[in-house]
Amino acid sequence: MLRRFRLEEPESVAEASELLGRFGDTAKVYAGGTELLLAMKEGLVQYERLINGKKIGLNQVSADNGTLKIGALCTHHELENSVLLQQRLPALVKLEQNVANVRVRQAGTIGGNLCFAEPHADPGTLLMALGATMVADKGASKREILADNFFVDAYETSLAADEVLTEIRVPTPGANRKCAYLKFGYLERPSVGVAIALSLNGVVSDVRIAVGCAGPAPKRVAEAETLLNGKSKDEVSRNLAQAGAIAAKASQAISDLHGAQDYKEHIVGVLLKRAFQAAVS
Questions:
Q1: Looking at 123, 154, 171, which one is the last position of a domain?
Q2: How confident is the prediction along the chain (281 residues), in pLDDT tens digits per residue?
Q3: In the chain, which ranges are continuous DSSP H helix?
Q4: What total number of domains does the chain contain?
Q5: Rounded distance, CA 133 to CA 100, Å?
Q6: What DSSP designation does 55 have?
């Protein structure tokens, strides 16, 4: 059962930031509510105030000078049906089509998903591999946070207490840029997710690998990337087992209802091989 709380309805980012700064840990931004309200109903977290972000806007997808800009309040449903993303970033569209279920995709937002930082969420892993940045806004000032640095731990991000996530910026992939995200799980939430992005022009280059869902937070795996960079497709195929083992350890997999640690680590290696094949095919 939900305890009583006050609903604040700011009409600008500056107002929302001021409320967060004034009320501190007793307040939280409310977007789709698919994660937050469930946690509050279960008594896992409690807030005296919820700050409704829906009147602020922030639900547009646009392209600007080689960058795709995704408003933080875009729902998963809006993203899976975005014509612009279907044309320029189909890997994200495919991910969004498989987030949770229809009810969650209709209400849940990309920004809410990222800020709640639930360990078994999908988008953060792919955005990390894509080299995305998150725009944190106080109204009077903004800063960009690399996706690599956005997630600190389970349910914890690098946003300051009075910052609002307003936008996700993703470099538009060029013609030779390939990417794929694969996940595995037998519950509604994935047990393991692996994303890879690379350039393919004779050799494999500029590889980015990220692993999520297995541990507390998604991780980029630079050591595994080094094994693949500058190699032919055949050389990469021979190195994928070693890269998968490195990525498995980097995932900081933990045993939970979604699987045992060693099982998740094994799946990381399997998914990395399949993700590479999916990206280059």
A1: 171
A2: 789 999 999 999 999 999 999 999 999 999 999 999 999 999 999 999 999 998 899 999 999 999 999 999 999 999 999 999 999 999 999 999 999 999 999 999 999 999 999 999 999 999 999 999 999 999 889 999 999 999 999 999 999 999 999 999 999 999 999 999 999 998 889 999 999 999 999 999 999 999 999 999 999 999 999 999 999 999 999 999 999 999 999 999 999 999 999 999 999 999 999 999 999 98
A3: 13-23, 36-41, 76-80, 83-88, 90-97, 102-107, 110-116, 123-129, 147-150, 222-228, 233-250, 261-280
A4: 3
A5: 24
A6: G
Q: Does 1 fall in a domain?
A: no
- DSSP code, position 22: H
CB 129 within 8 Å of CB 120: no
Asked if 49 and 77 sit in the same domain, the reply is: no
* CATH number, domain containing residue 16: 3.30.43.10
Strands lying side by side in the sheet with 61-64: 61-64, 67-71, 164-171, 133-137, 142-146
Q: Is residue 76 part of a domain?
A: yes
Asked if residues 173 and 127 have their Cβ atoms less than 8 Å apart, the reply is no
129: closest CA among 197, 225, 226? 197
The CATH number given to whatever domain includes residue 257 is 3.30.390.50
Query: Residue 267 is part of which domain span?
Result: 178-280
Which residue type occupies 176? N
Q: Which domain-ending residue is among 146, 171, 196?
A: 171
Do 188 and 274 belong together in one domain?
Answer: yes
Token pair of 168, please?
Answer: 């996700």
